[in-house]
Amino acid sequence: MSLSELVRRRPPGDPGSPGKPRGAAPPAPPAPVPTRKIGWRVRLKRDRSLLLMVTPAIVLLGVFAYVPMLGNVIAWQDYSPYTGFLRSPYVGWAHFERVFSNPLFVDAVANTLIITAFQLVFFFPIPIFLALLLNSVITPRTRTTIQAIVYLPHFFSWVLVVTVFQQIFGGAGLINQTLRDHGLGSGFDMMTNPDTFLILITMQSVWKDAGWGIIIFLAALSTVPPEQYEAAAVDGANRWRRMWHISLPALRPVIILLLILRLGDALTVGFEQLILQRQAVGADVSEVIDTYVYFQGVVYGDWSFAAAAGLVKGVVSLALVLGANKLAHVFGESGVYKRA
Description:
This protein is mainly alpha-helical. The protein has 2 domains: 41-92, no CATH class; 104-330, MetI-like fold (Orthogonal Bundle). The chain has helices at residues 3-8, 40-46, 48-66, 94-101, 103-122, 125-137, 140-151, 158-169, 174-181, 197-221, 226-234, 239-264, 271-281, 283-286, 289-299, 303-330.
C-alpha cells in the first residue's frame, strides 16, 4: 500500500490526518433544527374525531359538576329557597365564622379525621398484601376465582352490607345466638356499641371494597415481565426477596397515586354507610362532615351555613391533594399529574 493511500484511509479525527491540523478543536455540534409550532386550527382539524367523542362527557361534567358550583354563592348570603339567591341578602363571611366557632362542626371534623386515619392504617394496606399474596403463591386459575369472590361485595349497596353485618354481629345475630346456645354468656351487640363502631365500619369497608383494590394492584403487577422473577430465582432470591425487590417497586407508583387520592378524600368518608348506622350508635361517634352538612342544610334548612361548611371541606381537600402531589414530585414520582 502506498503512502498516499494510507493517508486517505486515516479517520478525520486522527492527529496525523491532513484534513485536520494537530491540536485543532473538535467540530461544533450541528445546530438544532427549528420546529414550527402547530396552530390551534390545525390541531383542531387533526383531533376533531377525538374531540367529538369526548364532547358528551364534557357536557355532562359541565352540567352536573361545574354549573352547580355557582350555587355556592349562598355561603355569603342569608339564603332562603323562597326568595332565591338573587334576592337573598348578602352577609359576607358571617357563616364561615359560625362554621369555625361551632363546637358540633369541630367534633364532626375530629370524627372524620379519626375514621380516615384509622382506615388509612388498617384498610389501605390490605388490598396491597392480598394482591401480593395472590400474585406470588396461587395459581392463575385459583387467583381468578378468589378475585371474583372478593370483588363481588363491591357491587352491594351499603344497605345490604349493613344488613348482613346486622345479621352476624347484631344483638339477635348469628354470633350471639351461637354463644347463647352454648351457654357462653349473653353475647354482645357490636352494631349498637359506640366503643367498637370504628372497628365495625372498617370491617364493613374492607369486606365491601378490598376486592376493588386487589384488581387495581394485580393490574399493576401484570406489567412486570416474568423474566425478572425467573432471573431473580436463578440468582437465588426466595419469594420474599422477589416480592421486596420486584413486586413492591412495580406497585410503588400506583400506591402513591391511590394514597394521594385517599388524602384528597380525607374529609369524605362513607356518607351512606354512616347515616344508616347513626341512630344506632349515636352522633357522638358517627357524625362526620358530610352527615353534619346534610342535617344542617337539608333537615334543618340552614342552607347558607351548610354551604359554607361544604366549601371549607372542599378547599381543605384540594390543599391536601396538591400538597400530597407536590410531596410525590419531591420523591421522584409522577403523582396525580406530572410537573410541567
